[in-house]
Amino acid sequence: MDKVLKDLGNGAVISDVGDDGIQIEVPAGVKIEKPIYLTQLLGKKDKLKLEQGIFIYLREGSEADVIITDRTAVNRPFKVKRDIIADVRKDARLNLYLLQEQGTKSVWLNKMDSYNSGHLTLGIFCLGGASITNSLLLDMCAEGATADVFGMTIASGTQQVTNAVTVTHRAPRCRDRELFKQILDEEAVGRFEGLVQVNPHCPGADSQQTSRNICLSRTARAYAQPQLIIDTDDVRCSHGATVGQLDEEALFYLQQRGIPRHEARLLLLSAFLNEVVDKVSIDGLRERLRMMADARLRGDLNHCVACGSCGTFGAIDN
C-alpha cells in the first residue's frame, strides 16, 4: 500500500510509491489552491547515482500547480536519472515547473512523458549542472487540448544543456506553443531539438516552435533543430530559430544615456529572458526566477539560494 506523504484535501494526495517514486493524484473536479513544491537537495551523504520517478495524475476538470526543484548542497559528481509521467485528463489544468540549480559536476537526465487531454503548462529553468538533458514526449490526446512549453537556460564554463521536445497531435484542433531561450558563455553548449508531428485526420492543429539563443563568447555553441511533420490538411504550424550576440547598437544606446556598459549588458540579457519568465503563473516563483537569473548573470549564484521561497509554498522535501 502506498504511503501518504501529504493529504491535499478533497481526496487529493501525495504518496510514496517506493523505489524513490512520488505520486500526485488529484480527483475529478478538485482544484488545489496552493502550489505543490517538491524540493530535492543532495548532500554529502547522498548516493552519487540515483534513479527516481514522479507520477502526476489529474482527473477530469481538476487543477494543480507543481514545482520541482533540484539542488546540490555540495559540488559532487551526482548522476540522476528521473522519469516524470503526467496524465492530464479532459478539462484538467496542470502547471508544472522544473527548476535546475545543480552543481557544476552534476549530470541530470529528466525524461518526461505527458498524455494531455486538457491544458498543460511546462516551464524548464536550467541554471546549473555539468550536463543536463530534458527530454519531453507530449501526446495531445483529445480534441481541443492545449500545451504551453517554455524554457530558459543560462550556462557557462563547459556546461552542456539539451532540451528535446516531441509533440504529437493525435486529435483534431489541438494547440501547442514552444519557446526556449538560452544565454551561453565561455565554452558552454546549448541544444534545442523540437519535433511537432500532426497525425492524419487531425485538422485544425495550431503549433508554433521558437528557439532564441545568445552566445556571449566565440567558443560558446548553440544548436537549434526545430522540425515539423504534417500529415493532414487545414493546419497552422510554424517554427523559427535564431543564434546571435548582444546588440552592440542597443548597448551603445544605453551607454549614451549614462548606464555603465556592464549594467547595460545585464539589462539587455534580463529583458531577453523576461518573455520566458513572464509565462510563469505563480507570482512568488516568477519573482524568485528573476532574482536567480540576475544573480546567475552577475556570476554570484550559489548552489542553494537562501531566498526563503521554499517556505512560501510549503515544501515537501524528497
Overview of this protein structure:
By secondary structure, the chain is mainly beta. The chain has one domain (31-245, 310-317). Helix content is 15%, strand content 52%. It has 4 helices and 19 strands. The protein has helices spanning 248-256, 261-277, 283-298, 309-313; strands at 3-9, 12-16, 21-26, 36-42, 49-58, 63-72, 79-88, 93-101, 107-116, 119-126, 131-140, 146-155, 160-169, 175-184, 189-198, 206-215, 221-230, 236-244, 315-317. The strands form 2 sheets. A 10-stranded mixed beta sheet has the order 1-2-3-5-7-9-11-13-15-17, with no helix packed on it. Strands 18-16-14-12-10-8-6-4-19 form a 9-stranded parallel beta sheet. Strand 2 and strand 3 form a beta hairpin. The longest helix has 17 residues, at 261-277.
Features of this protein?
318 residues; mainly beta; ten-stranded mixed sheet; 4 helices; 19 strands; globular
Counting helices, strands and paired strands, the structural category is mainly beta
Average of pLDDT: 91
The total number of structural domains is 1
Strand content: over 45%
Shape: globular
Major sheet characteristics: 10 strands, mixed
Q: Portion of residues in helices?
A: 10-25%
Low-pLDDT segments: 301-318
Distance between the termini: 19 Å
Strand order of the largest sheet: 1-2-3-5-7-9-11-13-15-17
Record field, number of beta strands: 19
* H-E order: EEEEEEEEEEEEEEEEEEHHHHE
Number of helical stretches of at least 4 residues:
4
**Overall radius of gyration:** 20 Å
